Amino acid sequence: MEARFEELIEGFITGNIGISENFLSTSLAAALHQNLLQRDSDDLMVRAGIGNSQVSDSAQTHRGDKTCWLEALTKDSAEMEFLDIIDQFISHLNSTCYTGLTSCEFHYALYEEGKGYARHKDQFRNHNARKFSMISYLNENWEEADGGQLIIHNKDHSALFILPNNQKAVFFQSDKIEHEVAIAQRPRMSITGWLKN
């Protein structure tokens, strides 16, 4: 995993966005994908709010995903493996980049067809514990025509369009990077979360 960690760090250092095309193994991505679908089938995926506010009709025009939080003490083997990888990444960041990270939080995210997320940052206005955002995608055979790109807005007014391909991870600073999710033309799935201190 260390090579994948370094891939994320190098991209972050050189361009503010770390990307690893094969951060998750094929088997782990498949297991997490199935977990997300099962949670949706069991009506455990709920409409997400904006910041730390309650869900409202106006929020849904801004943000269209459904989420379900991973429990830190989960007994699911795929979730345990994923969270162990994240713990290793946090340890690697702390030992090589002196980030001082102490915890994380992650949720499954599902954008149904026709849904997206308007331009935003991942930091709460009244709480700054989130230091880094991290997204791991669970979408097999994703194509440009499927939409759902992660759009990174740079300070020079240029934009980077990232396809949410299966196994890919994206890593960036929560309070610095403005980003959005383009309208998806098919269900778009990920595990999204934050590394915190």
UniProtKB/TrEMBL annotation:
<dbReference type="GO" id="GO:0031543">
    <property type="term" value="F:peptidyl-proline dioxygenase activity"/>
</dbReference>
<keyword id="KW-0847">Vitamin C</keyword>
<dbReference type="InterPro" id="IPR006620">
    <property type="entry name" value="Pro_4_hyd_alph"/>
</dbReference>
<dbReference type="InterPro" id="IPR044862">
    <property type="entry name" value="Pro_4_hyd_alph_FE2OG_OXY"/>
</dbReference>
<dbReference type="GO" id="GO:0008198">
    <property type="term" value="F:ferrous iron binding"/>
</dbReference>
<keyword id="KW-0560">Oxidoreductase</keyword>
<keyword id="KW-0223">Dioxygenase</keyword>
<dbReference type="InterPro" id="IPR051559">
    <property type="entry name" value="HIF_prolyl_hydroxylases"/>
</dbReference>
<dbReference type="GO" id="GO:0071456">
    <property type="term" value="P:cellular response to hypoxia"/>
</dbReference>
<dbReference type="Pfam" id="PF13640">
    <property type="entry name" value="2OG-FeII_Oxy_3"/>
</dbReference>
<protein>
    <submittedName>
        <fullName>Proline hydroxylase</fullName>
    </submittedName>
</protein>
<dbReference type="GO" id="GO:0031418">
    <property type="term" value="F:L-ascorbic acid binding"/>
</dbReference>
<feature type="domain" description="Prolyl 4-hydroxylase alpha subunit">
    <location>
        <begin position="15"/>
        <end position="196"/>
    </location>
</feature>
